[in-house]
Amino acid sequence: MAALLPAGPGGRGGEREALILLLLCFAAVDGAESSEPPPKCEELRLGQYPESGRPKIDNSTQEPMNCTNHTAYVQCLPAPNITCRDYLGIEKVFTGQEVGFYKPIACRNVNGYSYKVAVALSLFLGWLGADRFYLGYPALGLLKFCTVGFCGIGSLIDFILISMQIVGPSDGSSYIIDYYGARLTRLTITNTTFRKMQTYP
């Protein structure tokens, strides 16, 4: 290979030029391999946008603002020196202060029924059926009123059911509960639920 290149003074210049040429070839091949475009900002891993913005909570509903169809969007800020493509496909290097994308989070549909009011009505006026009238069940409310809360047994059962958030508003919406308050989440088992078999010693 040294014979192909003209030798410089002392005969070692050709080897040096050949080495430089070889390094340039490797650099060109290496650059060609890493020319894939950066990922979309929505496809970043969790550690690449460490602090997603906390949702702004509406005081009247205690849910994230602009909650529609059980979904709200929060701002996500990619970490400094992360390169990704925004929703327009423009490649961008972030400093940690710009919004990279909006992440969807789950929220509840509420229509003005307060959990605190429902529990208070069930506790103090449940024997008159006020809790069922408030939640939109007028027939059950009238039945409880006429039977004095099924002689107190129905009032106690309704108080337990409302306190455990099993009985909710009749329109299918959720209670207004403080966003960081005592919310219950129902867990269900379906055919896709993973079940770990119990092993005994």
UniProtKB/TrEMBL annotation:
GO MF term list: amyloid-beta binding; G protein-coupled receptor activity
Subcellular location: Membrane
Pfam families membership: TM2
Signal sequence, renumbered to the chain: 1-34
Domain TM2: 112-160
Topology versus the membrane: Multi-pass membrane protein
Record-level GO cellular component terms: plasma membrane
InterPro entries assigned to the protein according to its UniProt record, in alphabetical order: TM2 (IPR007829), TM2D1-3-like (IPR050932)
Keywords: Glycoprotein, Membrane, Signal, Transmembrane, Transmembrane helix
GO term, biological process aspect, one: apoptotic signaling pathway
Entry's family note: Belongs to the TM2 family.
Listed name of the protein: TM2 domain containing 1
Highest classification ranks of the organism: Eukaryota, Metazoa, Chordata, Craniata, Vertebrata
